[in-house]
Fold this sequence. Notes:
The chain has 13 helices and five strands. It has a three-stranded parallel sheet with strand order 1-2-3.
Amino acid sequence: MSNTSTTRHTRRVFSGVQPTGNLTLGNYLGAVRNFVALQDDDSFERLYCVVDMHAITQPFKPIELKSAIHEVAAAFIASGLDPAKSILFNQSRVSAHAELGWIFNCVARMGWLNRMTQFKEKAGKNKENASVGLYAYPNLMAADILVYRATHVPVGDDQKQHLELTRDIAQKFNNDFEVPDFFPLCEPLIPAESARIMSLRDGTAKMSKSDPSDNSRINLSDTADLIAQKIRKAKTDPEPLPSDIEGLAERPEARNLVGIFAALAGTTQDAVLGEYGGRGFGDFKPALADLTVEKISPIGDEMRRLTAAPDHIDAILAEGADRAAALARPIMTEVYETLGLLGGGTTG
Ligand code: TYM
């Protein structure tokens, strides 16, 4: 993707995670770990958001939502995000997201949203009964990013289409209101080895918080024993591992486990097959279980420690929200002026 339009804008990273149940190994390897890696790149400003307004687009229980917000914030911190280096906050505390989201409802076209595959997946067969918010979800996501004029967005592969829509919205706004380069065309940052972690029960389905089977995923909050047990039970096939990547082509479960190993070990699938090619899952699974426990269970332990003190998490989120709002407000003032609206959010 071209980054020609990012030059005028401050290099700024934005990403979000929904507080909708347990965070999985997929969220970690596809996104959160990348947030942490970007933290040491001083050429960027960084904002990481618990997108709680997105979580209400589908049925939810208020009491569970509250603890899920704390849990995602705890996962951010336990994974290594430092509130002194990155702005950590929750979306509903910064009203500019919802303000710009509404404006983008008036910029995006129905035809664009009709093409969104995630809406089709999430709404299922009963589209008539889906909330309007679920349909307009990608517009709020575009607002999350563009309200800070973020230039780079670390995400897993499943968010690619939403980011293309974000670019289309930015482009249309810039063109329609004759404000070239007002919003940047953001770049997705998608990790090569872990763009899409698949279910442990079905190598053709994405690992997901919403899968009814808990054995399909590793949750960041799982204990060491449970992690090892889920890896032992992971679906495989009877063949030994191949010695090169081509040999994984028709073997989705094997490919997924090798991919997880490579991502956790910080190496490539080729290197993993160099070591385990020709060996059976009886050898490979215990090594993968040990590696997963080593990398993931300390995060779960730290999350438990942090969520035991939700007031501390709230203080971090509130402070982050103040800093985020201070970045967003002048951009919103420009947006209102550009549209000829007499608002500007002067009341807060
Ligand atoms: P969410 O909450 O579903 O997932 C958070 C992040 O985790 C990534 N991810 C995965 N990566 C690899 N393999 C998987 N199995 C896997 N499952 C999830 C997602 O790609 C995502 O990066 N719409 C977003 C939240 C959002 C957002 C934003 C993201 C709202 N506003 C602005 C970026 C910028 C979502 O539902 O992610």
